[in-house]
Amino acid sequence: MSVDADRDLSAELASPESGLQGFPVDAICTGCQRVHVKQVRPEDVDAEIGVDPVTLDAEGLTSFKHVCHRCGTATWWNPTAVLTGLIEAKRSAEE
Ligand SMILES: [Zn+2]
């Protein structure tokens, strides 16, 4: 059903490559088409600061600049999904 079945999104989120601040989105590198979980702040994707990220729709988010380890530089990434499951898992872990 899911094309992501062979990916471990939590592991991707935990890796330094995802970034340190913000909420998790699935994103695609415009340079090499690599797909990876990235953390973005609302202001990075033109969302309202302080918004609850689970209410956001990836289609309404803008592309954001983030390092791509395959490209070896900072590139533009397009958000393809807001990973609400990971956001909620993180929240319950912090409670
Ligand atoms: Zn890339």
Please give the structural blueprint:
Blueprint: H1 9-14, E1 23-29, E2 35-40, E3 64-68, E4 73-82, H2 84-94
The structure holds zinc ion.
Residues 29, 31-32, 34, 68, 70-71, 75 line the site of zinc ion (ZN).
Biased composition (Basic and acidic residues): 1-10
Protein name: Mut7-C RNAse domain-containing protein
Region (Disordered): 1-21
Please tag this protein with its features.
single chain; 95 residues; alpha+beta; 4-stranded antiparallel β-sheet; globular; binds zinc ion
Apparent shape: globular
Spatial order of the strands forming the largest sheet: 2-1-4-3
- What are the secondary-structure elements, in order, as H or E? HEEEEH
Number of strands: 4
Helix count?
Answer: 2
State the share of residues found in helices, binned by percent. 10-25%
Q: How is the biggest beta sheet arranged?
A: 4 strands, antiparallel
**How does the helix and strand content classify structurally?**
alpha+beta
Query: What share of residues are in beta strands?
Result: 25-35%
| Straight-line distance between termini | 32 Å
| The number of domains | 1
Describe, in plain words, how this protein is organized in 3D.
The chain has a four-stranded antiparallel beta sheet with strand order 2-1-4-3. It contains two helices and four strands; from the N terminus they run αββββα. With 95 residues, the protein is of the alpha+beta class. Helices cover 18% and strands 29% of the residues. The chain has one domain. The longest helix has 11 residues, at 84-94. The mean pLDDT is 93. It has helices at residues 9-14, 84-94; strands spanning 23-29, 35-40, 64-68, 73-82. The structure holds zinc ion. Residues 1-10 have a biased composition (Basic and acidic residues). Residues 1-21 are annotated as: Disordered.
